[in-house]
Amino acid sequence: MEALAIPVATLCREAMDFEALYESAFPGVARFVSKMNGSFEDAKDIFHDALVIFHEKHAEEHFNIQSSPEAYVLGIAKHLWLKRFKTSGRHISLDAMEASIAIPEDYYPTVDTSTLLQMLERTGKKCLDILQAFYYEKMPLQALAQKLGFGSVHSATVQKYKCLEKVRDEVKNKSISYEDFLE
Question: Which residues are in the RNA polymerase sigma-70 region domain (predicted)?
Fold first, then answer.
């Protein structure tokens, strides 16, 4: 009779430990699954699978973990969820998220084009044409070189650089800041 008492007591203690593990580890698993777009039911399924794996590993003769049982179960659950998430083909739709975010009309500052145009005109007609073609019309340097009559792409690149330097010098001389170009 006494021989049966020891295994029953051991089983009761293990059941209590298992219940404590359930109570301490499940909230972390539920939070993780929720953050990863899973439902409460998904969290319960994953957690139960993780507990079964933990129980099977715990029953092995040479079972040794380097962390707490809660952390071990949470790690198993995370691995299971990520595996299920990947194989189920689920994904988070950024289009739906993007549509739900409304950007106000005044979010982007409006540029005072007259001030900018005055700066560019001070550099000369040729520079205005080069910078306008390259930056506003998005014309490739090859096409720009042909359109404006440069001998090579390198010549167009050098001239564009010189024009930018003229604009930079003009901005420095006038002590103009970024805010001066905004309306």
Answer: 21-90
